[in-house]
Amino acid sequence: MATVTEAATRLDTYRDLARQLRVDSIRCSTAAGSGHPTSSLSAADLIAVLLAGHLRYDFANPRDPANDHLIFSKGHASPLVYAMLRAAGAIDDDELLTFRKLGSRLEGHPTPILPWIDVATGSLGQGLPIGVGIALAGKRPLGAPYHVWVLCGDSETAEGSVWEAFDHAGHEGLSNLTAIVDVNRLGQRGPTELEWNMDAYAARVRAFGLDAIVIDGHDLAEIDDAYSRARGAERPTAILAKTVKGKGVSFLENKEGWHGRALDPEQARQALAELGQSPARTFAVTRPGRWEPPVMRKGPVALKTYAEPVATRKAYGEALAALGAARGDVVVLDAEVSNSTHAEDFKKTAPERFFEMYIAEQQMVAAAVGMQVVGLVPFASTFAAFLTRAYDFIRMAAVSRARIRLSGSHAGVSIGEDGPSQMALEDLAMMRAVHGSTVLYPCEGNQAAKLVAQMADRPGISYIRTTREKTPVIYDPRAEFPIGGSKVVRGGSGTDRVAIVTAGITVHEAIKAADALANENIAVRVIDAYTVKPIDAAALAEAARVTGGRIVVVEDHWVEGGIGDAVLAALAEKGGVGELRYRHLAVREMPGSGKPAELLAAAGIDAAHIVAAVRELAR
Amino acid sequence: MATVTEAATRLDTYRDLARQLRVDSIRCSTAAGSGHPTSSLSAADLIAVLLAGHLRYDFANPRDPANDHLIFSKGHASPLVYAMLRAAGAIDDDELLTFRKLGSRLEGHPTPILPWIDVATGSLGQGLPIGVGIALAGKRPLGAPYHVWVLCGDSETAEGSVWEAFDHAGHEGLSNLTAIVDVNRLGQRGPTELEWNMDAYAARVRAFGLDAIVIDGHDLAEIDDAYSRARGAERPTAILAKTVKGKGVSFLENKEGWHGRALDPEQARQALAELGQSPARTFAVTRPGRWEPPVMRKGPVALKTYAEPVATRKAYGEALAALGAARGDVVVLDAEVSNSTHAEDFKKTAPERFFEMYIAEQQMVAAAVGMQVVGLVPFASTFAAFLTRAYDFIRMAAVSRARIRLSGSHAGVSIGEDGPSQMALEDLAMMRAVHGSTVLYPCEGNQAAKLVAQMADRPGISYIRTTREKTPVIYDPRAEFPIGGSKVVRGGSGTDRVAIVTAGITVHEAIKAADALANENIAVRVIDAYTVKPIDAAALAEAARVTGGRIVVVEDHWVEGGIGDAVLAALAEKGGVGELRYRHLAVREMPGSGKPAELLAAAGIDAAHIVAAVRELAR
Predict the structure, then answer these.
(1) Helix (H, G, I), strand (E, B) or coil at B611
(2) What is d(CA B33, CA A417) in angstroms, rounded to the nearest whole number?
(3) Which residues in chain B have their CB less than 8 angstroms from residue A433's CB?
(4) Closest CA of chain A from B256, distance in Å
(5) Residue-by-residue DSSP string for A248-273
(6) DSSP assignment of B237-293
(7) Can you tell me the distance from the alpha carbon of B161 to that of A388, in angstroms, rounded to the nearest whole number?
């Protein structure tokens, strides 16, 4: 008898909360004059039951490491996110009504400028793979008690990244992850591909290794039961909830043409009248039990030093291994090429903190974003060319204010025989154009190691570009390479006639060129701009001043967006450097296969071409 | 009895061909000293049966529109590709042995510099979605008899894009498509996720709407039967072939550590001895029946003209519709946002040539690449921010020498309330760094329409960036906007003191600024650089000369890689323009939500900020 009453009370609470979430979703979006109320209404019951019955979260302490994680992969349901925060007492009604206004924390799509939001969403298909990362981190190395809940839209299951996420969840047996799919049948411009074919959804997620629970997403008891089962399951669960877009308001329910459209004030009045009275209540949310994450060792990092030629990708792997030995918070992810990127060196040192992501670059970057949410220090690697696969995830990681580290190996034509599909020639452009990013491009082992060590504590998105081929060691192992700096490796006096600015593999071509030109009495300054962003503007300006603006930039990258553009922008922004006499040696034609040296020559970026360019400028 | 003999003869042919393919895969990779022989050996039987028994292809006439299409999605099996071409008589043995050498057509991964290759592969997970595009085009609008065969690796099924492809194949019922998955259990660095779990593969592809046929990939009769069933099926088929990596050579079979590794000459001798004699034969391949594609109408394009403010995205859609009415070869794809990108205007005109790709940007771009293979003229659109999702596909489209046209709407902070997840702020950088690309950014309707019309006949990858908000009409509908050009919209005399270079939405801010500055007697030249790539270097140099290098660049894009970098690179490359006095107004901080005008102001790229920058330079 008591149980029945308790259950009835619980369902009443859910019902009241769901009504309030609907009311507030409409109120805030109508006040904003834009937003996605109907996509919020379809999921209001799902979120009400989760918040009041299943989530373990201390809204007064969003940094509690024991808190569950709730990600709205369908970030456009932001009215529901903010209505939920208001119902939990995290924000007040005044703030709720600032939705989408300049300066408000309540942006059009949720971002972590709100402390209760882990990551930015709004580019569909990203929340679930990020949730996989949080769940992986919770399983190992943290051993955390938290559960990860991800609210997905049905439209976004068209994104392959969602299936990468289901695949990894199933493969890793992430029982601490629950995907809640709000199958409201309608996308932006009309019906989704599968509409309400719940059997098709269930077959797919089961085939990918998850438990599937199909429910009526507006039946509070069914939802309640599904969440209990999901938290207790031994496998990851996908709750497939058949819902109605615009649910609760007759003129919105299951209607096309209402996606991303706010109600006008008169429509809102009608809608609120239909929904009924909803006094502004704060609902109790269960707090998690006490739990502290394991203490992360953080000792001094013993980097290897190099005297013999070594590939910077190898130095990357060995520096990762040293970091892994010294620090317990460093984790490494790789997209099934760890024997090429040399992330495998870390795996040998700290296998429990190495994550094989198979050939799923989007999931790899998303998992890195998820892992940094819970305080880990992720490094993720693949061939630099294949990081282009994850560009949307990298872009969104910046919106998430995430701290992740990416390593791209096999950059440029100098990889040789494998040909253009494997040659990153746009990665510098891509990574420079990420907000707040750091872009590093070492030319040899000692430098690479020192840069990798610094990446561990670098905010934002940092990227290191590594080279397939071995390169000679040119720096003393004790040399320091601060991010933002550069090195003068040839010349450096006031009599330098031309400056060569380069980084990575072509530093060695520039050195050969400078040495050859010295025999012709042409003094050349070679600048190793190992930090492509932020580039060392002071060193560039000084070089321009000394040489009368005679600058040759050499890079194993397309003409656009790389070192050349970075150099010109830095000099122009700085100003006062006089007129430039500029030559840009970069890749201008589609390369083919060949030996590394042949391809550097064919692209016009080897020592011989540098010599010719310098001679021309020095005339 | 005759049938039994015929069957035996057929199987003998397959066996001989398979042996020759294995022998030649080893010979050419050993000669090259690199490559992927073991990944070729696992699929040799699959390709032998296809080539000698099922493919309908005229190797003497690779442009025959009736030819089947065969794509090696696992492009690293290039030794097998080239061995196949030799067996078909398309190339000779001398050329086979140029594999991976400088200047050879036989690159490390196949590219369309060989006339028998439709598209470049080597970035995994792309061949199948491209095959979907070819199959879609074959189904409609071409009504072609060809069949599309795609050889996939098992490792690459970890890529979400493969599931986007299966999803679209199933949804569209592409019975003219067969995926052949070479399940050889071993990836680059070890076992794949699913190894030989054929049931898991079968469950997955069936759940995505395909027929699945599980076979022993070395049983020639089973393969033969599977191909017959696949060609005759009413749905798309996935043939899941359990194979052994390195099959046929005892010391390679199912061994780790042999991925991407050529045999040395001694190992090759042993391997060839095991495989047995294989006289160099040319095998007959069945030619397709005669078929000509429907004649494509190509009449004059009647573009709409504009006198009232219109969003360039709307002008894009209406220009597409005009193109669609005039030309039968234009096809349009959109990622479920056609009411935002306005691709829906084309759909209303030519629904049979409109392809709804749902929210699967990778599949969308891949399908566009596939459609241009068979002579169609694809335009593909989504929010510009979400084209980042497909960057690897765009990069590879350039390696494929593909002609595709991309449209990204909702660029920049000027979209307003939706916030940074929806704002493309890196698209110009991303698209400039694509080999041979064209990057267009119109500021108003008449200009947008004229540019869209030109894109139809533009080689390479062309990109148009459109704006969410309506913008005033500033050009006469009769004005022409040649690609590579620019327009001077204010000033233009020898007395201009400062030049403002901009494009798109900020052209209107620059005009307001110039008009305000005119009242202060500061003559300003405003250049509308509607072609960001190739940018109008002559006009920029002339402006620099006239103004003494006083240039302000304004753009609704991150600081890096966009119009500013393009302007500086053009001026530096041109040379002789004297010293620059440069101000760059671009987005430097992460934007939030707000009204478009508020966000332009907050980013420092509105008229007021332009006025301030010009005043400073004019001092």
Answers:
(1) helix
(2) 9
(3) 425-426, 429-430, 558, 560-562
(4) 12
(5) T-TTTTT-TT-TT-PPPHHHHHHHHH
(6) EEEEEE--TTTT-TTTTT-TT-TT-PPPHHHHHHHHHHH----------PPPPP--P
(7) 13
Residue A1 has pLDDT above 80, yes or no: no
Show the tokens assigned to B311: 């969003």
- What would the pLDDT profile of A54-95 be if each residue is shown by its tens digit? 999 999 999 999 999 999 999 999 999 999 999 999 999 999
Distance CA B528, CA B506 (A): 9
Average pLDDT for chain B: 97
Residue A102: which of B103, B193, B595 has the nearest Cβ?
B595
Q: Which residues pair with A311 in a beta bridge?
A: A470
Contact partners, residue A304, CB within 8 Å, separation at least 6: A315, A318, A319, A322, A445, A449
C-alpha–C-alpha distance, residues A89 and A13, integer Å: 16
CA separation for the pair A609, A556 (Å, rounded): 13
**Contact present, B70 and B57 (Cβ < 8 Å):** yes
Contact B418 A109 (CB under 8 A): yes
Residue in chain A lying closest to B549 (CA): A579
- Residue-by-residue DSSP string for A319-346: HHHHHHHHBSSEEEEESS-HHHH-THHH
CA-based nearest residue to A375, from A437, A331, A435 = A331
CB of A400 closer than 8 Å to CB of A112: yes
Q: Do A603 and A428 form a contact (C-beta atoms < 8 A)?
A: no
Q: What percent of chain B has pLDDT over 90?
A: 97
Section B459-483 average pLDDT = 98
In angstroms, the separation between the Cα of residue A121 and the nearest Cα of chain B is 7
Residue A183 CA to residue A192 CA, distance in Å, equals 9
**pLDDT digits over B35-61, tens only?**
999 999 999 999 999 999 999 999 999
Q: Are A258 and A267 in contact (CB under 8 A)?
A: no
Asked if A560's CB is within 8 angstroms of B533's CB, the reply is: yes
Is residue B586 within 8 A of residue A596, CB to CB? The reply is no
Residue B2 has what pLDDT?
52
- Which two structure tokens, joined as six digits, stand for B209? 């709407």
A228-233 long-range CB contacts below 8 Å, 24 or more apart?
A228/A54, A230/A178, A231/A54, A231/A147, A231/A178, A233/A175
- Look at residue A603 and give its three-state secondary structure: coil
d(CA A189, CA A256): 8
The complex scores an ipTM of: 0.98
Of A121, A575, A581, the CB nearest to B581: A575
Token pair in block for residue A527:
């600048």
Q: For B138, left (φ over 0), alpha (ψ -120 to 50), or beta?
A: alpha
Which amino acid is it at A42? S
Comparing A123-127, A419-423, B215-219, B574-578, the range with the smallest average pLDDT is B574-578
Strands annotated E in A306-409: 310-311, 330-334, 354-356, 377-383, 404-409
Whether the per-residue pLDDT at B225 is higher than 80: the answer is yes
The full DSSP string for B116-185 is T--S---STT-HHHHHHHHHHHIIIII-----EEEEEESGGGGSHHHHHHHHHHHHHT-TTEEEEEEE-S
Relative to beta strand B404-409, strand B377-383 is: parallel
Three-state secondary structure readout of A541-552:
HHHHHHHCCEEE
Summarised one tens digit per residue, pLDDT across range B427-437 is 999 999 999 99
How far is B525 from chain A, CA to nearest CA, in Å?
20
The pair of three-digit structure tokens given for residue A422, joined into one six-digit string: 């494997």
- Cα B417 to Cα B601: distance, rounded to the nearest angstrom: 14
Please state the length of chain A.
Answer: 619
Q: Among A98, A47, A86, A127, which residue's Cα sits nearest to residue A399?
A: A127
